Amino acid sequence: MAKSPQKQPVTGWQRTLVIGIDQFIYLFSKHWLAVFNSVIAIYVALPILAPVLMHAGIERPARIIYTIYSPMCHQMASRSFFLFGEQYAYPREIAPTSLKPIEAYLDDIPEFAGVPESNWVAFTLAARAFLGNSQMGYKMALCERDIGIYGAVLLGGLLYAVLRKRVKPLPVVAFVLVGMGPIGLDGFSQLFGYYALPIDGSEPSGFTAVLHMIFPLRESTPFLRLFTGMLFGLMLVWLAYPRIEEGMRQTRMELERKLGRINALPFRKG
Predict the structure, then answer these.
(1) What pLDDT sits at residue 270?
(2) C-beta neighbour count of 194 within 10 angstroms
(3) How many angstroms separate the CA atoms of 270 and 260, rounded?
């Protein structure tokens, strides 16, 4: 029986490359939480920076931020927080809140010119395009719910940095019920309520009439969007981070043995 050829040891630049990759992975496994928190902090800070820049008259960088975040969020003005204006938010008129509705300002907003309020598709596009003005202030580049989600992920990550040795992973069932349940109920009940309305303003009929009976038209409030988003974000951290930590711990232990044998552990003392 012929012997299989022996595996040749990696040498030269290939060995250096492999060791460098292993060292990078090892360092990342030690500091993954700091990396995650830093990335999330930047991701949350930029949408808040956008209205600050708009208010200061530095519009070009602000518009770049809005554009970058546009694929990740609907950015509707009626569902976003505002800075430097009369109110912190301008929800739709049907939202159960004491805030002055965005409909009260539409006559002075060029983006809404000629847009019928009953046409929710056209209204959505106009609300997405409107960034703000000197009276109302300027919207953040992420909606209220997304600010809640990513802000809570950052908060949860910072808390986990302190409590990581004492936190056990959240069961998946609990995440579905507590994390996904409220945000799904608030978001989809609102979404289906709008889908049931014909954009020409006519009465729902057929399937849309049934959908309208199950999901009557409603508009969530800034508080509900923020709260359900934060709940989802915190539960997501509780679900994922302890599991990531365990995976990183195993990777770190394996690489410590591997790199230790060749005296290649990065920043090794002695």
Answers:
(1) 44
(2) 16
(3) 13
